[in-house]
């Protein structure tokens, strides 16, 4: 798979382009174009769709890149090592430029909370124009990797240094199930962060709480689908892509209503 990040004019937002289907096979990276949230985010509908977009979205949002065409020549973005590190390195190598337009910054007036099956996800209003994310990881007693927390104020520096390198993780039981289904034939345990009862199998953690940090990485990508610079404090307890998207959709609805009210006024 070949993925190329191409400069876009101000106010374009992030737009995926399936170059193998032609230059008009585009999908804007906003919540209403999400068609799947099971283990990964899928944008668009077949044939014009791209799977596994969350880590490249996280790299763009984490580094405050508002406008970009993401060209990809296959229905799935590269998985790499399960983190956003390679995307961040590519962006740093290419450089970033300031464009002559303002980007909307937005937060909620009062806290908003969504919940699903024992998981909750909230956005609390911010007194200042910044985004802070707290994640509480807890799959239940005796389920690895155990309880972990992480709070990060998201800036391009903190994202690059503390979040981008954190990899997707899965449980040994899930890895065995994937093998049984014939998935990941060319993958060994050390290519993936797989947790057994006593910790990672054939692998070393990049941070003691790498899984909780990866969940923040996913949130940065998923919440970028609101399409604005979100401010406030996100507090997540056990949330994953489906709940993250529920919040992104709710926020986009609030934002749409606000824009409509301002237009009428
Ligand atoms: Zn992820």
Describe the model:
With 265 residues, this protein is α/β, with parallel strands linked by helices. The chain contains 6 helices and 17 strands. Strands 9-10-17-11-12 form a 5-stranded mixed β-sheet, with helices on one face. Strands 1-7-2-3 form a 4-stranded mixed β-sheet, with no helix packed on it. The termini are far apart. The model has no long low-confidence stretch (mean pLDDT 94). Zinc ion (ZN) binds next to helix 1 and helix 5. Zinc ion binds next to helix 1 and helix 5.
Instruction: Provide mean pLDDT, rounded.
Output: 94
Total strands: 17
Order of helices and strands: EEEEEEHEHEEEEEHEHEEHEEH
* Quaternary organisation of the protein chains: single chain
Structure summary:
Helix content is 28%, strand content 27%. The chain has 265 residues and is of the alpha/beta class.
Fold topology:
Blueprint (H helix, E strand, L loop, with lengths): L2 E5 L6 E5 L7 E3 L5 E3 L5 E4 L2 E4 L2 H9 L5 E5 L12 H10 L10 E2 L5 E5 L2 E6 L6 E7 L10 E6 L2 H8 L5 E3 H9 L12 E4 L2 E2 L9 H14 L5 E2 L1 E6 L3 H24 L1
Parallel strand pairs: 2-7, 8-16, 11-17, 13-14
Antiparallel strand pairs: 1-7, 2-3, 4-5, 5-6, 9-10, 10-17, 11-12, 14-15
Bound molecules: zinc ion (ZN).
Search tags:
four-stranded mixed β-sheet, 265 residues, binds zinc ion, globular, 17 strands, alpha/beta, 27% strand
């Amino acid at each position: 798979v070949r993925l190329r990040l191409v400069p876009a004019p101000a106010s374009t937002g992030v737009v995926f382009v399936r170059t193998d289907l032609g230059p008009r096979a585009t999908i804007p990276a906003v919540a209403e174009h999400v068609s799947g949230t099971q283990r990964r985010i899928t944008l668009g509908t077949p044939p014009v769709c791209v799977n596994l977009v969350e880590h490249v979205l996280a790299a763009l949002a984490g580094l405050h890149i508002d406008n970009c065409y993401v060209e990809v020549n296959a229905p799935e973005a590269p998985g790499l090592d399960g983190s956003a590190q390679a995307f961040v390195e590519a962006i740093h190598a290419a450089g970033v430029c300031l464009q002559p337009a303002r980007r909307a910054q937005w937060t909620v007036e009062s806290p908003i909370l969504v919940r699903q099956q024992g998981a909750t996800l909230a956005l609390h209003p911010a007194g200042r124009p910044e985004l802070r994310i707290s994640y509480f990881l807890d799959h239940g007693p005796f389920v690895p990797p155990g309880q972990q927390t992480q709070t990060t104020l998201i800036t391009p520096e903190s994202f690059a240094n503390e979040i981008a390198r954190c990899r997707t993780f899965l449980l040994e039981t899930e890895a065995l199930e994937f093998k049984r289904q014939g998935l990941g034939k060319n993958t060994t345990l050390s290519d993936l962060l797989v947790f057994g009862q006593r910790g990672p199998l054939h692998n070393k953690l990049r941070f003691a709480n790498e899984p909780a940090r990866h969940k923040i990485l996913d949130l940065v990508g998923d919440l970028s689908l609101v399409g604005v610079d979100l401010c406030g404090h996100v507090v997540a307890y056990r949330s994953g892509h489906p709940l993250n998207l529920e919040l992104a959709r709710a926020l986009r609805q609030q934002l749409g209503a606000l824009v409509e009210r301002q237009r009428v006024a």
